[in-house]
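seq:
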Amino acid sequence: MNYQKNVSTDLIADGYVTIIAGPCAIESREQLDTIAKIVKESGLSFLRAGAYKPRTSPYSFQGLEHKGLEMLKEIGDKYGLYTTSEVTDAETVSEVAKYIDILQIGTRNMSNFALLKKVGAVAKEQKKKVVLKRGWASTIKEWLLAVEYITSQSDEEVILCERGIRTFEPYTRFTLDLSAVPVIKKLSKLPIIIDPSHAVGQSDLVIPMSRAAIAVGADGIIVEIHNEPEKALCDGQQALNEKQTADMLAQIRKIAATLGKKIR
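struct:
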């Protein structure tokens, strides 16, 4: 059975909080299909999954690359989901864009200006949205200037993503800067979403930080979920399982409602 896409291609829409969910990395067709079904049956419309994975350790799983992109397009089409995945270098941007709807630039590449300009050019040519994550040691001013490398090449929508910054606190993976949301809304007209998974690095902290993100006015969240987090090849410790995903959605749906919004 193939599903239809039930929302417009716009990542951000008035009156809604957008939830982008999926695994850190595509591990197999079966794994991605299972997770995509969870996303669809949860009433969501956006699937995230990594094909090219820049990892701190060269010995960690690096992703399925082109094969993963093919799976992502196939399964995104099957379930009627818009897809997003990370682009990691200028040489592969055009290739990645052929398979996905939203180009994601990770924290390591926020200051890769050649990549940003290439993404802007490809976004314009192929009509793609762009998510730009904040560098883990970047100021908000530097982050906003990085956007201009993209928008100098394209007028396509850029969505900012706060994913935690490096501080002296070692308990969490990074420190989630929730104040970035009202600051961005004060300084610009750009939409901003939150990545609680990479910020905290622990699944039991993802739900409370997701609640906080919606409460502070974020336009959405991008969150890692997995059908079997304990077996994940990448960042399983921060991925929500199916039950946790349902709990998170139930909780943030209530918070969104108090702000006159719905989740999608």
